[in-house]
Amino acid sequence: MLELEFIVEKDRLKFFCSFFGREYTDDLIEESSIFLSKVKRNWQENQSIFENRSKVFFEGLNFGPSVKVSILPEYFKLGCSNTDDRLILFGQPIRSKNFSSAIITHELCHILLKSNGYQNPPIIDEVLAMLSELPFYRNGIDDLDKIWPDAELDEFHLAAKKIIINNHLSLDKNFRDHIRSLEKTLSKDLLAFRPKVGLLRNLTT
After folding, report:
1. How many Å apart are CA 55 and CA 59, to the nearest integer?
2. How far apart are the two ends of the chain, measured CA to CA in Å?
3. Those residues with Cβ within 8 angstroms of residue 180's Cβ, 6 or more apart along the chain or in another chain
4. Do residues 182 and 124 lie in contact, with contact meaning Cβ atoms separated by under 8 Å?
5. Number of structural domains found in the chain
6. What is the dihedral of CA 191, 193, 198, 199, to 10 degrees?
7. Whole-number Cα distances in Å, 3 to 64, 67, 108
8. Residue-wise burial string across 172-196, b where 16 or more C-beta atoms lie within 10 A, e elsewhere
9. Fewer CB within 10 Å, N- or C-terminus of the chain?
10. Model pLDDT for residues 118-172, shown as the tens digit of each residue
């Protein structure tokens, strides 16, 4: 079983306040701690979904040591991971009942692929990560499309979402089967597509 450690970090809160040009106050610790309780409770309520889907989709991956989930205020609008440090940053408005668990699983997918030595084209990793969100949405792909409107996504993440929708991808296959299939079916341009170096990468340094 993969263990998650939910934490609030004062130094990280100060860093992001500085990054976003916000004033830091100690009230942010309490605010983040309250949000942590909600996010952790949602994960505990949905952990069985992750474990059941892992038996097929993530089968064969070594889960390794625990992963830290550093909680930030919702209005920071962060959901990203530092794969080398096995760290997830989460501070996003809740878009659906199990949204926080979906995004944590998305970021776990990136961490597990990296820690198990997979070096896929970035677009394939993003497709797999976005695909891993589906069990947490009542209507699967339909909800994914609504929760992540096209206008809110950059070109890279929009391309990943469209690959899932247009190809009717599901979690019924192991991630390796998806990798092999995507390597064969995606165009050279998509396989060479890289996310822009910007905010999310800077945030995890």
Report:
1. 5
2. 28
3. none
4. yes
5. 1
6. -60
7. 9, 6, 11
8. eebbeebbeebeeebeeebeebebe
9. C
10. 999 999 999 999 999 999 999 889 999 999 999 999 999 999 999 999 999 999 9
Q: Which residue has the tokens 């263990």?
A: 3
For 134, the domain range is 4-203
Amino acid letter, residue 22: R
- Look up tokens 């009942």; give the residue: 97
Instruction: Tell the residue number behind the tokens 């501070």, with chain if given.
Output: 91
Q: Give the 3-state secondary structure of 135-149.
A: HHCCCCHHHHHHHCC
3-state DSSP call for residue 161? helix
Q: How many C-beta neighbours within 10 Å does residue 6 have?
A: 19
Instruction: Using alpha carbons, select from 148, 151, 190 the residue that is nearest to residue 165.
Output: 148
Q: Give the amino acid at 21.
A: G
- Answer yes or no: are the C-beta atoms of 17 and 81 closer than 8 Å: no
